[in-house]
Specification:
Helix content: 40-55%
CATH superfamily of the largest domain: Phosphoenolpyruvate-binding domains
Strand order of the largest sheet: 1-2-3-4-5-6-7-8
CATH topology of the largest domain: TIM Barrel
Largest sheet: 8 strands, parallel, barrel
Mean pLDDT: 88
Number of domains: 2
Order of helices and strands: HHEHEHEHEHHHEHEHHEEHHHHH
Number of helices: 16
CATH architecture of the largest domain: Alpha-Beta Barrel
Radius of gyration: 28 Å
CATH class of the largest domain: Alpha Beta
Structural class: alpha/beta
Low-confidence stretches: 1-10
């Protein structure tokens, strides 16, 4: 008992000593701080919209982004001047460095706005993009409200977000002379699109869409098939797409999709094809035009209708980037097969056979679609 009493007294003494030396609780509370007016525009002045992509969204769309996977400046500049609203530089699935991207944007900062699909919602990824000049940020595989909020945090300056003011060629060179000032107008001009690609993302889509700063939800056609095991046209797949577009619509933001869905209701922003697809498509269209002109003089070859279908097949399936785009081209050819001459049908079947042989992973589906239109593909 005496030992216990001694230990108790010592414990009380030690507690008093520690209490006497404990630091006083902080007097400053960040949550109570009122953000200053340093970055406010003059009273009565609205924030100018200098980002062409944001302007398109505000006008109701369609906002269309061209996809860039190459690092050649001449290719990038051709795409940036082709009429797109922004450039979707692929940083999720390519080994491109931010230094290479910075060079592209510095060489041709417009007329299409620089944009990037970053790898994930991370301070380093998003701030590299914005500091290098991106005015459109696309974040893939967003699964949760927490991940979506992180994307908002690193995209926007305070008080809306947590983006650091660290300079870079974006604010220092590309956008240093925008109306109203870069820092003052950034939060009103940047476009943030979050890609819903997983079942978890679909489940959280309605909550994600309500987060201030999210401009659009992108219904990822390819990966929603990858993560669900269903494809376009399947009821299960279409229900996922509808859930994403409904979440966006109810929140008053934009629903985004691949460009081939421009005819679907409720979608207002789109991702177009890659530079490689555009080169193939342009070459194929040029060849088709020449073949049509040749046929009009009594020469051989496919009719003009068949030539256009063949050109589309070459563009979308010659080197498959997105399976769904190729399948859509095959579907178009199969649907038109009944109105073609026997000779044109043979040409179509032959081309489809060559495409199937060059793409064994997609061959069965290509043959299945073609058979639906009466085209027997070997």
């Amino acid at each position: 008992m005496r030992r216990l009493h001694t230990l108790t007294v010592l414990g009380l003494a030690l507690g008093l000593l520690l209490g006497a030396t404990a630091p006083a609780s902080a007097q400053f509370r960040a949550a109570d701080f009122e953000f200053g007016d340093r970055f406010d525009l003059p009273e009565g002045e609205e924030s100018p919209i200098w980002n062409p992509a944001m302007r398109k969204l505000l006008d109701g769309g369609p906002m269309i982004g061209g996809t860039i996977r190459a690092t050649d400046a001449r290719t990038y500049c051709a795409m940036a001047a082709a009429g797109y609203d922004f450039m979707w530089v692929e940083m999720q699935h390519e080994a491109t460095s931010w230094e290479q991207v910075a060079r592209l944007w510095r060489t041709c900062p417009g007329p299409a706005a620089p944009g990037a699909r970053v790898a994930y919602a991370d301070e380093r990824e998003i701030q590299h993009a914005t500091d290098m000049g991106a005015a459109v940020i696309v974040v893939p595989t967003v699964d949760s409200v927490e991940e979506a909020q992180a994307a908002v945090d690193w995209t926007y300056f305070p008080p809306m977000g947590r983006r650091s003011s660290g300079g870079g060629q974006g604010p220092g060179e590309l956008w240093n002379d925008v109306p109203g000032g870069y820092r003052q107008t950034w939060n009103d001009n940047v476009v943030l699109l979050l890609m819903i690609e997983t079942l978890e993302g679909v489940e959280a889509a309605r909550e994600i869409a309500q987060i201030p700063g999210v401009d659009g939800l992108f219904a990822a056609s390819g990966d929603l098939g990858n993560f669900s095991g269903y494809g376009e046209g399947d009821p299960e797949y279409e229900a996922l797409i509808t859930e994403v577009s409904t979440a966006a619509k109810e929140a008053g933001i934009h629903a985004c999709a691949p460009l081939r869905w421009a005819n679907r209701a409720d979608f207002t922003c789109f991702q177009a094809g890659t530079e490689a697809a555009n080169i193939r498509r342009g070459a194929a269209a040029e060849i088709a035009q020449a073949e049509a002109a040749f046929n009009s003089t009594g020469g051989g070859g496919a009719s003009s209708n068949a030539a256009a279908l063949l050109a589309n097949l070459t563009a979308e399936c010659g080197s498959i980037t997105y399976e769904a785009d190729c399948y859509a081209a095959v579907e178009a050819a199969a649907s038109a097969a009944g109105s073609l001459s026997d000779e044109d049908r043979e040409l179509m079947a032959s081309r489809l056979g060559a495409i199937a042989a060059a793409n064994p992973n997609q061959a069965a589906r290509i043959r299945e679609i073609a058979a639906g239109g009466g085209l027997e593909v070997q």
